[in-house]
Automatic annotation (TrEMBL):
The gene is proC. This is Multifunctional fusion protein. NCBIfam families: proC, queuosine precursor transporter. GO terms for molecular function: pyrroline-5-carboxylate reductase activity; transmembrane transporter activity. It is found in: Cell inner membrane; Cytoplasm.
Length: 476
């Protein structure tokens, strides 16, 4: 074993290269590094820096104190299988592969039982490590000695800051926050640039302003004794334009983020612009601004009651028409023709007032429709209708909201189709399973008609979107 710190990288990609830049001249020299990578071009790049390389794992690995597995998760087991027999008792193993637990890694390394005795540390860096400005979450198996923890911290500090977690499950939170965090920031930068361009700035001007704003605000937050909330308040004058913008921003983008931070990763990203800005004519720019659905209009009590009444009327009438005595034939009911209008109403509410208010109308309509259906339809049909309605409508709202920034027809078309299929088979299964009614045949026939009607309703949706369903302009 060599006397100085020796490190073997199994996998020589970008993250390994970033770590090498911080390690050389600090913790070790080029002759103390080995890179195992099957790619000749990758090995040549490392060799040009004076680093030893190998195309495959071999006995020489046993001479290196620290092994860093820097391969993609899907090839990790293969990489470990090729190298584990050269592992020594005092070898420190560090994995930077996301999602692979120490239990899995230790098992592949073929360590003696118990697996907790393995000198194994998992880490989760992020892409700013490529310029040595990253931050890495670290977790060590329980029996890893403090000297190995210190060594791992020294190694990972070469690419930025380090945060230790005591529970391996917390690495999932690290992945969601800092591992995926740069993607959130990059998308936010894209959105700021797009917003600047839509207000008349050039691409270069908007980009410089956005990047400098993010950089300056981050440095200010990092160096200030005040929490971010106080810093935000310092910039926000009561009743001013910043306060108005933040209010709309919070309502449209961050409500779900506050409730479930980082749990669903990309679902919390800004929804008002997901793609790079493309050159557009003034007419297209105006149309895009008119369809900007992040500025949702407030829904009045009168509008809410009207929407609930319309939706309730459609549901109750559909529940009457779906009963056996009103079947059109052996595979179709009249309810298949009336019920899709509910999705049209929901989609228009979602477009104008936003998903939160659409869910409110659906919830109230659900209660009203179930109670009313008990009086005019079979109780089992009423229960089935309520369960199917609530499930399908909430799905429609969710899918529509995810697709609202796509072409105008995609959100109502895809959301309506998915919701119609779920609603139909759920309703007929609950209402008629175990009876003499051929519910599978009826469900199949009904869903086919609903899908056709859903496509036909795109025309009135397009018309009404610019009247009932389009958010009105809001003064800043």
């Amino acid at each position: 074993m060599k006397n100085s710190l020796t490190i073997a990288f199994i996998g020589g990609g970008n993250m390994a290269g970033a770590m090498l830049g911080g390690l050389l001249g600090n913790l070790c020299q080029p002759q103390d590094i080995l890179v195992v990578d099957p790619n000749q071009e990758t090995r040549s790049a490392w060799e040009s820096k004076g680093v030893a390389t190998a195309a495959a794992a071999s006995e020489v690995l046993s001479q290196y104190k620290v092994w860093i597995y820097a391969v993609k998760p899907q090839v990790m087991q293969q990489a470990i299988h090729a190298s584990h027999r050269f592992l020594q008792k005092d070898t420190l193993v560090i994995s930077i592969a996301a999602g692979l637990t120490t239990t899995s890694l230790a098992g592949w390394l073929d360590q003696a039982e118990p697996a907790s005795a393995t000198r194994l540390i998992r880490c989760m860096p992020n892409t700013p490590a490529l310029i040595r400005q990253g931050i890495t979450g670290l977790y060590a198996m329980p029996d890893v000695p403090s000297s190995d923890r210190d060594l791992a911290q020294d190694v990972l500090s070469s690419i930025g800051e380090v945060v230790w977690v005591d529970n391996e499950a917390q690495l999932d939170a690290v992945t969601a926050l800092s591992g995926s965090g740069p993607a959130y920031v990059f998308l936010f930068i894209e959105s700021l640039i797009a917003g600047g361009i839509s207000l008349g700035l050039s691409q270069e001007q908007a980009q410089r302003l956005a990047l400098s704003t993010l950089k300056g605000a981050s440095l200010l937050a990092a160096g200030s004794e005040d929490p971010p909330a106080r810093l935000r308040e310092n910039v926000t004058s009561p009743g001013g334009t910043t306060a108005a913008a933040l209010n709309r921003f919070a309502q449209a983008i961050l409500q779900d983020w506050y409730r479930r931070p980082c749990r669903r990763l990309m679902t919390a990203l800004p929804k008002w612009h997901r793609s790079r800005p493309q050159p557009a004519s003034p007419l297209k720019i105006q149309e895009r601004n008119n369809m900007n659905t992040t500025r949702f209009e407030k829904m009045t009590i009168k509008q809410t009651l009207l929407a609930v009444a319309i939706m309730g009327l459609i549901i109750v009438s559909s529940n009457i028409l779906v009963q056996p005595q009103f079947h059109i034939n052996a595979w179709l009911t009249w309810g298949a023709i009336t019920y899709p209008i509910c999705f049209l109403v929901t989609d228009l509410l979602n477009r104008r007032f936003g998903p939160a208010r659409a869910r409110r109308v659906v919830s109230i309509g659900f209660i009203f429709a179930v109670l009313a259906s008990y009086a005019v339809a079979d109780s089992r049909i009423a229960i089935a209708s309520g369960v199917a309605f609530l499930t399908a409508q909430l799905l429609d709202i969710l899918v529509f909201d995810r697709l609202r920034d796509k072409s105008w027809w995609k959100a109502p078309f895809i959301a309506g189709w998915l919701a119609a299929i779920i609603d139909t088979f759920l309703f007929f299964g609950v209402a008629f399973a175990g009876t003499d009614v051929p519910w599978v045949t009826l469900a199949t026939g009904d869903v086919g008609i609903k899908l056709i009607i859903n496509a036909m309703l795109l025309a009135p949706f397009r018309v009404l979107m610019w009247n009932l369903g389009r958010p009105r302009s809001v003064q800043a």
